[in-house]
Every structure is written in structure tokens, then in C-alpha cells.
């Protein structure tokens, strides 16, 4: 036995494998902390539910006496394991008394489980794989259905899913989020199928432009899936005969009509950072080169939405933290990298 058992998961949605691991945590300690990953992400086919909705799913599948012993720690995706591990440790430290013995419940399923060894000092409580499915199979069955057939679509997997989760999925299918996520899911599936016959899994190269002026940054709302309606910095795919620099300026001009002289942009360039986390994009392996420009106190350039942008807007930097849940993929973290939005790691919510 340990004083506190930690269980880390995404629960998109909750299934019986999750509940078996959570039960093991409850059997191992009087108190359990569930770290809910991918918190404050915009809804997407991979992350359809808010962390609060996932907490409700977990609690609905627990007996009240067990639920009373469980605390939830929402954790954003930092796309940087060292920063993420530090944030988890800090979060757990805030919720526990110094000197408490801590156990980490999990099973090593694949390369994504490597984080379990990143917490020296925590006792690893290894559990064999539970159940035959993962959440991806549930999401694929669910998003391939209709609001009326959602329950029937997941019925073949029903023995692996708590009834309370199925009821939640059925209710969620009646909300406007469901058809929007289905559109994204179909687009992403078609995109991956189009590349399925390539001799190697493709690696895409993109560029992004973080343009700062008068303590505001230039953002767009995406016009198309994936991420339709979500906030993003202007950017896109590099073309065959371009450098990343040329591509960055072209995408900025195409999406926002911000066409400052190249010399002005060169003078404003502060840094370039590569964002290459394997899970940063659901389209596939995508490596982006983000260019950070600061125009300082110059007049705000005139902008106009075009191409892949439904809307373009100058947004005050001090408002960005409150918009975290509206950002496409890792674009909030891109802004955080250059602008230091999260500061003490704890969320601004």
C-alpha cells in the first residue's frame, strides 16, 4: 500500500480498461489522484470531451464511496515531456502532504507509455493490459454513426464500456458538437487514407507566423476542417520551390493580406522555433517552423481574412490565456513558447 495512488489518462471516452486501472489504484491507496490529460484542448476527433465532461464520466462509473476517495488533476498537453512531468509533479505536490508515499498505476502498452518511467521516487504499480479495445476504436465507431444510431454503433463494444459512458455518448450525439466533430473525423480519415499507399508514412512540413504589434498578436479563425472555427496563427504547408522563410511570408499574406515589405519583416524577426512533437497534428507527422516577429510600436498593419481564414483579428496578449480552449492543435503552446503565457504552469482558469 501507498498513501496516494496516481493514475494518468485521457479518458476520451471512459472504457472498462480505464476503470480496471482506476480500481487497481483504489485498491492500492486510501486516496487516488486521477491526472486527466489533454485538458483545455479545443474539441477534436481525438479530444472530443472537455476535462470536466471526462471527470463526470469517470465519477458516473464509480460507486459513490470510491468517488469520494478520488481527486481530479486536469493537465494540459505541453508537447514537451520535461515540462509536462514538472507540471504533474507540481500539481500532485499541491494536493498531497509532504512525505506521503506515492504510487503510479499504469501499464506499458507502447512508446506513448514511456512517461511512466519519468517519475523517479514514485513506486510503479504495474497492471497488465485490461480489455481488448482502446478509446480510438470507440471514437471511430461513434463518429461513424448518426445521432439516432450512436448507441447501436457502440453496441458491439458495449461489454468494454460502462453503461454510464454509453448514456453520455448518446446524450452528446444530440448536441451541435457531434456533427461538427464528425465532419472533422471524416476529413482526417480521408486525409490519412489518401496517403496510405505512400511507400513511407509521410512527414509534412509547415510554417507559422506569430506576428506581434503593440502587445497584440495576429490570429485567424480557421475556415475549414481540421479545426474549423478554431483560433490559429497564420500558416500552412511549404511549397516545393520555397524556403521556409518564403513560405512563411506567403502564407501570412494569403491568409491575412498583411503584406509588409520583406525588409520590415526581416528586421522584425526575433526567432524561429521548430515544433515537432509526434502528436501535435491529427493529420499525421507534421513539423512546423514558427517565425516570431515583433513590430513593437509600429502602426497595426491592415488585415483582411482570405484563403483558409474565415476571420482575422488582432488580439491582446493579455487575453490569450483565457482563450486557450479555442486554439487549434498546439497553437496556444506555440504562442506560450514565444510570449510566456502560462508562467507558473498552472492554468489561468
TrEMBL record:
InterPro entries recorded = Cyt_trans-like, NUDIX_hydrolase-like_dom_sf, NUDIX_hydrolase_dom, Rossmann-like_a/b/a_fold
- According to the record, the segments passing through the membrane are none
Identify a single GO molecular function assigned to this protein. Answer: nucleotidyltransferase activity
List residues of the Nudix hydrolase domain: 202-338
Alphabetically sorted, this entry's keywords are: Nucleotidyltransferase, Transferase
Q: Which Gene3D superfamilies match?
A: HUPs, Nucleoside Triphosphate Pyrophosphohydrolase
Short name of any one Pfam family annotated for the protein: NUDIX
Q: What is this protein called?
A: Bifunctional nicotinamide-nucleotide adenylyltransferase/Nudix hydroxylase
Highest classification ranks of the organism: Bacteria, Pseudomonadati, Pseudomonadota, Betaproteobacteria, Burkholderiales
Amino acid at each position: 500500500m501507498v498513501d496516494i495512488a496516481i493514475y494518468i489518462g485521457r479518458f476520451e471516452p471512459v472504457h472498462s480498461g480505464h476503470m480496471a486501472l482506476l480500481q487497481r489504484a483504489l485498491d492500492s491507496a486510501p486516496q487516488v489522484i486521477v491526472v486527466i490529460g489533454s485538458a483545455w484542448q479545443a474539441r477534436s476527433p481525438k479530444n472530443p470531451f472537455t476535462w470536466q465532461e471526462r471527470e463526470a464520466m469517470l465519477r458516473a462509473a464509480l460507486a459513490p464511496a470510491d468517488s469520494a476517495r478520488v481527486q481530479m488533476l486536469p493537465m494540459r498537453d505541453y508537447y514537451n515531456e520535461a515540462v509536462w512531468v514538472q507540471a504533474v509533479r507540481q500539481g500532485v505536490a499541491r494536493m498531497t502532504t509532504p512525505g506521503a508515499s506515492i504510487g503510479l498505476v499504469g501499464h506499458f502498452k507502447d512508446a506513448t507509455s514511456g512517461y511512466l518511467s519519468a517519475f523517479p521516487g514514485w513506486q510503479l504499480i504495474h497492471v497488465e493490459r485490461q480489455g481488448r479495445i482502446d478509446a480510438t476504436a470507440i471514437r471511430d465507431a461513434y463518429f461513424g454513426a448518426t445521432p439516432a444510431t450512436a448507441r447501436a454503433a457502440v453496441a458491439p463494444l458495449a461489454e468494454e464500456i460502462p453503461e454510464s459512458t454509453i448514456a453520455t455518448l448518446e446524450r452528446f450525439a444530440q448536441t451541435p458538437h457531434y456533427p461538427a466533430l464528425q465532419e472533422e473525423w471524416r476529413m482526417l480519415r480521408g486525409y490519412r487514407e489518401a496517403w496510405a499507399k505512400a511507400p513511407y508514412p509521410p512527414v509534412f512540413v509547415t510554417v507559422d507566423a506569430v506576428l506581434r504589434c503593440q502587445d497584440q498578436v495576429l490570429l485567424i479563425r480557421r475556415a475549414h476542417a481540421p479545426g474549423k472555427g478554431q483560433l490559429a496563427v497564420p500558416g500552412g504547408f511549404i511549397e516545393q520551390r520555397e524556403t521556409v522563410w518564403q513560405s512563411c511570408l506567403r502564407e501570412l499574406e494569403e491568409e491575412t493580406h498583411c503584406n509588409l515589405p520583406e525588409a520590415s519583416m526581416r528586421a522584425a524577426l526575433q526567432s524561429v522555433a521548430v515544433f515537432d512533437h509526434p502528436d501535435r497534428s491529427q493529420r499525421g507527422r507534421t513539423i512546423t517552423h514558427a517565425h516570431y516577429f515583433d513590430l513593437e510600436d509600429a502602426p497595426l498593419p491592415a488585415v483582411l481574412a482570405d484563403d483558409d481564414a474565415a476571420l482575422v483579428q488582432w488580439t491582446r496578449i493579455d487575453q490569450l490565456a483565457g482563450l486557450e480552449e479555442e486554439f487549434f492543435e498546439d497553437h496556444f503552446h506555440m504562442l506560450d513558447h514565444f510570449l510566456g503565457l502560462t508562467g507558473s504552469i498552472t492554468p489561468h482558469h
